[in-house]
Design brief:
It is built from 13 helices and 18 strands. With 380 residues, it is of the alpha/beta class. A hairpin with a 2-residue loop joins strand 13 and strand 14. The chain binds flavin-adenine dinucleotide.
Length: 380
């Protein structure tokens, strides 16, 4: 029965886990709340051993083919004058791709041996001696041997198995909105960034300069709003950025019309344990390090590899497997979370000088300093 695993969340951690669970002889089912695969989205990057995991999955070349090939960006003032260069090394990692492109690739690599259920969510979990009875918001109830919450920062699985998210989220005082738009400035493999105290706006090219992504970031503590009310999110951003210079008025108009829109607090997840009985958490659901760490995708991929490997070699003892997974990941995650907090502290550098930006670039290798997680060979 333990071979039958439900994974909540079909973004990065979920499909990556499905891939490795199948390699270890499990039967994964992924339930994803979104009605279909999410294409595009913002750019995410990979560091260190995550590239090794992609290689072990046979996907490294395919991911490299999706590289955004982002070059250096420019800092601009309120009149649009470029006053400094922001080296790509500061923000693009070892390899950068659009998150939706990565999700599609992982989906294609797993769909043959994974049941994907889109447009649904776990509604309740009831564990007994040999499994978990799972009720869904739409589908009929089903039994699984194990349940993995890979459903992100606001994990429903975590709420059901461990309690409300307020217990576990540490907000870093930054809110971010990101949306798709045309590359109306005709930029080529680059971005422009406007930064004033407590606020920043940027635009970056995407998909070989045929599209762009823009973002607004602002400092805010204790902001209250309905997480599902997109119109309210857009209003909050518009109010914060009213009267700002550069392309901000045009970007606000573009945001208003944008269908692909993301808005959230930059937060971390801190938990004493990621396992409760037959339920375990993975990726951002377990230990979000925040976008300011630049490590979330790598952490999700490596965590999936380790969790599946430990389950595959545990001889059916999920409690021992979950404990070993945590032991392997804890130090690595702690480093990422420290990076996330440091990144948040220096996020709103007002008009940073070229000297400071060059120093950040020079330190970029140091930013990849995280203690490498030793990728064990799990024999598949
Ligand atoms: C603006 C931004 C920029 C980032 N930049 C980087 C970067 O440069 N480098 C980097 O490494 N990381 C970056 N990250 C972080 C990275 O996106 C995450 O760490 C990574 O996607 C975590 O993957 P995940 O699969 O754990 O969670 P997520 O990608 O959050 O996926 C969770 C999935 O679960 C689904 N879901 C949610 N609730 C339910 C439910 N009830 N039932 C079923 N499914 C559900 C969601 O729809 C989603 O598909 C960034 C994040 C943000 C927000």
């Amino acid at each position: 029965m333990n071979k039958n695993v439900l994974i909540s969340g079909g973004s990065v951690a979920g499909p990556a886990l499905a891939y490795w669970l199948h390699r270890h002889g499990f039967t994964p089912t992924v339930v994803e709340r979104a009605p279909r695969l999410r294409d595009g989205g913002y750019a995410v990057d990979f560091r260190g051993e995550a590239l090794d995991v992609l290689d072990r999955m046979g996907l490294l070349d395919a991911v490299r083919a999706l590289d955004t090939e982002m070059g250096d960006a420019a800092m601009v003032d309120a009149e649009g004058r470029r006053y400094a260069t922001l080296p790509a090394a500061v923000f693009a990692g070892d390899l950068e791709v659009l998150k939706g492109d990565l999700t599609r690739l992982l989906y294609e690599a797993t769909r043959e041996h994974t049941e994907y259920v889109f447009g649904d969510s776990i509604a309740s979990l009831e564990e007994d001696g040999d499994g978990v009875l799972v009720a869904f918001e739409h589908g009929a109830p089903r039994r699984f041997g194990l349940v993995v919450g890979a459903d992100g920062l606001h994990s429903k699985t975590r709420a059901l198995a461990f309690g409300p998210e307020e217990r576990y989220l540490r907000h870093l005082g930054i809110h971010t909105a990101i949306f798709n738009l045309d590359n109306y400035l005709g930029l080529e493999n680059t971005g422009l960034l406007y930064s004033v105290p407590g606020k920043a706006a940027n635009i970056f090219t995407a998909r070989a300069n045929t599209e762009a992504r823009a973002a607004f970031h602002f400092a805010a503590d204790g902001l209250r709003y309905d997480r599902r009310d997109t119109a309210a999110h857009k209003r909050i951003v518009a109010e914060r950025f009213a009267g700002e210079g550069w392309e901000v008025p045009r970007l606000l108009a573009e945001m208003d019309a944008a269908e692909e829109f993301f808005f959230d607090s930059n937060a971390q997840v801190e938990m004493d344990t990621w396992a409760a009985g037959r339920v375990v958490l993975l990726g951002d659901a377990a230990a979000c390090a925040a976008p300011t760490s630049g490590r979330g995708t790598s952490q999700a991929l490596i965590g999936a590899y380790v969790l599946a490997g430990e389950l595959g070699t545990s001889g059916g003892d999920h409690t021992a497997a979950f404990a070993a997974y945590e032991e392997h990941m804890r130090g690595y995650v702690a480093e990422h979370q420290a990076l996330g907090r440091e990144g948040a502290e220096r996020f709103f550098m007002p008009a940073p000088t070229q000297e400071v930006l060059d120093m950040l670039a020079a330190n970029a290798p140091e930013n990849t300093r995280t203690e490498p997680v030793r990728l064990q060979d799990y024999g598949v």
